[in-house]
Amino acid sequence: MQKREEHMSSVLIKNESRLGLKLVAPAVGIIGLLVIYPILFNIYLSFFDVQLNGTKTFVGMENYTDLLGNPRYYHSIGVSVIYLIGTVIGTTVLGLAAAILMNQEFRFRNLARGLILLPYFAPVISVVFGWQFIFDPVNGIYNHVVVDVLHLTDTRENLIGNPDSALFVVIVFDIWKHFPIAYLLFLAKLQSVPKDLYEAAAIDGQNAWGRFWHVTLPELRFVIATVVLLRIIWNLNRFEDVYLLAPNVETLPIFTYYQAFAGIVDQGVAAAISVIQLLVLVGLIWLYVRKVLKW
Amino acid sequence: MKTKTSLFVAGTMLVNGLLISQLAHAATVEFWTAQTQTDRLQNIELLASTFEALNDGVTVKVVAVDENEMATQMAASVAAGTTPQLIEVNSEIIMALGEEGVVDTKTHQDVIQDIGKNRFHKGALTTLASPSGDYYGLPYHGFIQGIWYRKDWFDEKGLAAPNTWENIETAAKALTDKANNQYGILIGTKQDSYTEQVFTQLALSNNASEFDAKGNLVFNSPATLETIEYYKELAKYNPPGPQNWRARDYYLQGKMGMFFYSTYIMDDLALAEVAKGSLSSANFKELSGGTFDPELVKNTAFAPIITHKSAASYGTLSGLVALKTKSAENTKATKDFIEFMYDPASYITFLHMAPGGMNPMLKGIAEDPAYLEDPNGVFKLYGADKMKQIVSGFDDIRSFSVVEGKTFPASGAIFAKSVIPRMIYSVTIEGKDPQAALDDAEAEMKAIMGE
């Protein structure tokens, strides 16, 4: 009897695992086709010089050595790092501040909550045009106010065009455009923090800062970590905002574009760059998940 | 009225054509055009429909592809096996494509033979010649670049026309008044093709070039260095920060003394309506575009030739490129369609999309009375003689890719990678040393040529 039952259960287990395999097969197939295959083909292409008509010439590591010997590549990595640090910290801090503010009771709170999301919803191209008009050196309102109205300076500045300030403008633009998503995630979590935790902290003699430090922050820890992770992934690959607003800010994706896609597409070089970028991204995320999040 | 009639004619022919075409076997011409504006596309669609009506069983599929996207899209379509039969794009991209082995030079030869080699402007045809004497494309339309300037301001200050290096610099200095938001000149300082176009004309006038007649790279020369240094001087009188052709709006607003531009500006200057359009943009139809000065055409003069060590006129052209296709029927249909596009009736319809900006590459078209009657009356405003003078420039336009009648397609690849614009940007905006920037540019050019 017992034996039969054992036999039954092992058959059941087998059947179940077979069913399991069948159920995940479509997903595995799709991922294999759309993710694994392109990655492998990409690695393969990175060792070739590819002509438009499909002719491939094996060049070994040449695409990689060309890339790693190019000083502009390292410059763009530096720019990317500054851009990443600035935007990730900026959006997280601003998003957190906005979420805490919007978690308080006040009149028109719902309206304010909605309005905060606007920059995130507006199409990139239209807000980029808006910013360009604002900072236009000859006709823009910024220069009009600073030079003609307030007489703060005599010289008109092209803040977006000037390479010294362009990176700064691009960072501010990204923070302004993307902090709402951080805010949204923080606010959702804040609303689920039990009130009695704050009350208990107040009884323990904690002031507002102490309550933030000992209750809000630990409660938000994983949301903050998620926001930071998402922002790193998005912004390491961020192209359109930077390229449309100030194409002279050469972050890694912009450099890739100029190097590989401007003019006739250099598919071998493009493949080599993306292989390196993939390795960097995977490495960064692994490090972050293991060491910072300790997942 | 004219459009209505032609629409009707085309429509009738289209219906007839459709009925017959079902009997004949099918051929397809997929035509990628760089003309993405709606009104221009409608015009080209009309031409395509007319051709379909005249040729049984042929389908012409018009696809608009942004000029900056053309090379990328081509790469994708060739890889996917869906290469179009015909594209229309600028000469630099044509030369770069030619080197990729996807161009059907045989069809080009056939068309040239049918139309007659002598009917093409010689300089235009040479621009698209391959090193082996084939043609990577057929010249279709082109523009001449030069300096457009405020004649009234020049007269007021007693300045000479900006046709030499000295005159340009003197005038730029005299007309700049930054405290009052006035700028002397517009030259390109952004990392895009406008910068290369302005620089090329100045470099050619200083006898600087990319290649010598043997094809050696001679870009890193004292003449080029001198041009860069001069360019840096001129950039002082530019509006603040990196600029490209879009800054021409400052001229239309009366805030700028002169600017490098192509003959594409002619209808903008001439027509208040068009000027309004250019001040806003295709994207913002509601904007009325501020004030327009109706006297601007009268007060504007054009200096197409700049002289320093030699006289240089600069222009660039767009061509039709037939691509390799496996089907003989498609190749035949493509050849027929190209020849149809050169037929005076359809050719003039096409060129009238941008009077002055799109100039004919076949001799005789510019004198055609039908050509001089453009729908907006732009040519009447400038006069037939001025038009003829502009078009004649195509007999001896110069560029970096043609040296003593020989073509160096590597120049197209260098253009495509924006080597020169990035060099200019680093000198004028980032303050890099001209010789260091020139050395870097030369190294990049060598890398592109695979040396």
Q: How would you classify the helix and strand content of chain B by structural class?
A: alpha+beta
- Spatial separation of the terminal alpha carbons of chain B: 59 Å
Which class of secondary structure composition applies to the elements of chain A? mainly alpha
CATH superfamily of the largest domain in chain A: MetI-like
State which percent range the strand residues of chain B make up.
5-15%
Structure description:
The complex is a heterodimer of chains A (295) and B (451). Chain A is mostly helical and 295 residues long. Chain A folds into 2 domains: 2-45; 63-293, MetI-like fold (Orthogonal Bundle). Helix content of chain A is 76%, strand content 2%. Chain A contains 13 helices and 2 strands; from the N terminus they run αββαααααααααααα. In chain A, strands 1-2 form a two-stranded antiparallel ribbon. In chain A, α8 (163-190) packs across α10, α10 (208-236) runs antiparallel to α13 and α12 (252-261) runs antiparallel to α13 (267-293). Chain A is flat and about 90 Å long. Chain B is an alpha+beta fold. Chain B folds into 2 domains: 2-136 and 315-384, D-Maltodextrin-Binding Protein, domain 2, CATH 3.40.190.10; 144-313 and 398-449, D-Maltodextrin-Binding Protein, domain 2, CATH 3.40.190. Chain B has helices at residues 2-21, 38-54, 70-80, 91-98, 105-115, 122-127, 151-157, 165-175, 193-205, 222-235, 248-252, 265-270, 272-279, 296-299, 328-342, 344-351, 369-372, 378-382, 384-392, 410-416, 419-428, 434-449, and strands spanning 27-33, 58-64, 86-90, 138-150, 183-186, 256-262, 300-303, 306-307, 311-312, 314-322, 359-360, 402-403, 406-407. In chain B, a hairpin with a 2-residue loop joins β12 and β13 (406-407). In chain B, α5 crosses α15 and α21 (419-428) runs antiparallel to α22. The longest helix of chain B is centred in the first third of the chain and has 20 residues, at 2-21. Chain B starts with a helix and ends with a helix. Residues 17-24 and 279-290 of chain B have low confidence and may be disordered.
